[in-house]
């Protein structure tokens, strides 16, 4: 596959952590440390924290997004968040199909595809998450799972979008994919992407790695030809770690 330059992208997935005062403090710390970030940076706070984060990040190079998005733009869907609500809160991104949503909320591949389209419809870029569980890997099903998830996510041909390869066994476990495992999966995703949207378009898409990414392991991972950044959970709550990881993306460029 021809190599073309892809600006690194780093997402901070805050999950269901923090209240407003903590979110304000972390946002301020990040704005202070990242006045010229070596990567495109987007923070994903819980919905009630979005106005606070937006207020602090406004005018900075940092963007923010939703951790999930409903397929409909409005309606009787208790507890859900719509694309227009995210856009109104200044979001420019939305996570779609995070494995915790797939696991805890039964999100199917087809639903994830509809969510990606809902994001585009509202001017948001979906960051589509996919990855195999430990048993799927042990059974030799990794590529089949990734292909099925990618086909579902892209069924309606969303654009723009970015992907995050997040092996479920690496999320929050402290066990990171080795560079060999990461590159093999990222290469497979890019080749499968090329079959779906063409080689040039596939070569321009960012594919992030997620799963216990930390300041110690990102340098080896970002150096890989098909790793274009990170989706960071735990380490994104620590401003020093998170900004160090973003800095590593610049050193690889
Ligand atoms: P982790 O989470 O970095 O804490 O493993 C990554 C994610 O779930 O996006």
Total of helices: 11
- The beta-strand count equals 8
- Give the spatial strand order of the biggest sheet: 1-2-3-4-5-6-7-8
Largest sheet: 8 strands, parallel, barrel
CATH class: Alpha Beta
Stretches where pLDDT falls below 50 for ≥5 residues?
none
Q: How does the overall form come out from the CA principal axes? A: globular
Percent range for β-strand residues: 5-15%
Structural class designation: alpha/beta
How would you portray this structure in words?
By secondary structure, this protein is an alpha/beta fold. It has one domain (9-251): TIM Barrel (Alpha-Beta Barrel). It contains eleven helices and eight strands. It has an eight-stranded parallel barrel with strand order 1-2-3-4-5-6-7-8, surrounded by five helices. Helix 3 (83-88) links the parallel strand 3 (63-66) and strand 4. Helix 1 (20-33) packs parallel to helix 11 (239-252). The longest helix has 19 residues, at 179-197. The structure holds 2-phosphoglycolic acid (PGA). The site of 2-phosphoglycolic acid has 13 residues, from strand 8. Residues 13, 166, 171-172, 210-213, 231-235 line the site of 2-phosphoglycolic acid.
Main attributes of the structure:
253 residues; TIM Barrel; 11 helices; 8 strands; 14% strand; binds 2-phosphoglycolic acid
């Amino acid at each position: 596959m021809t190599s073309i330059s892809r600006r690194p992208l780093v997402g901070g997935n805050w999950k269901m952590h923090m209240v407003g005062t903590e979110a304000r403090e972390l946002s301020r710390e990040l704005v202070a440390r990242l006045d010229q970030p070596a990567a495109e940076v987007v923070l994903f706070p819980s919905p009630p924290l979005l106005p606070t984060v937006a207020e602090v990040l406004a005018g900075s190079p940092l963007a923010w997004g939703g951790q999930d998005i409903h397929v409909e733009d409005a309606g009787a869907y208790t507890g859900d968040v719509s694309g227009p609500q995210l856009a109104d809160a200044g979001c420019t991104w939305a996570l779609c199909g995070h494995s915790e949503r797939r696991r805890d909320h039964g999100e199917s591949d087809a639903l994830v595809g509809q969510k990606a389209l809902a994001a585009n419809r509202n001017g948001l870029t979906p960051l589509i998450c996919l990855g195999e569980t430990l048993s799927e890997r042990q059974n030799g099903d990794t590529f089949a799972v990734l292909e099925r998830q990618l086909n579902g996510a892209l069924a309606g041909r969303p654009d723009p979008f970015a992907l995050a390869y997040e092996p479920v066994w690496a999320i929050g476990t402290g066990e990171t994919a080795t560079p060999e495992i990461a590159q093999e999966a990222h290469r497979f995703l890019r080749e499968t992407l090329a079959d779906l949207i063409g080689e040039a378009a596939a070569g321009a898409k960012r594919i992030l790695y997620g799963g216990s990414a930390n300041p110690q392991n990102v340098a080896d991972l970002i150096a890989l030809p098909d790793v274009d950044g990170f989706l960071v959970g735990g380490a994104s709550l620590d401003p020093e770690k998170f900004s160090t990881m973003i800095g590593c993306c610049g050193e690889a460029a």
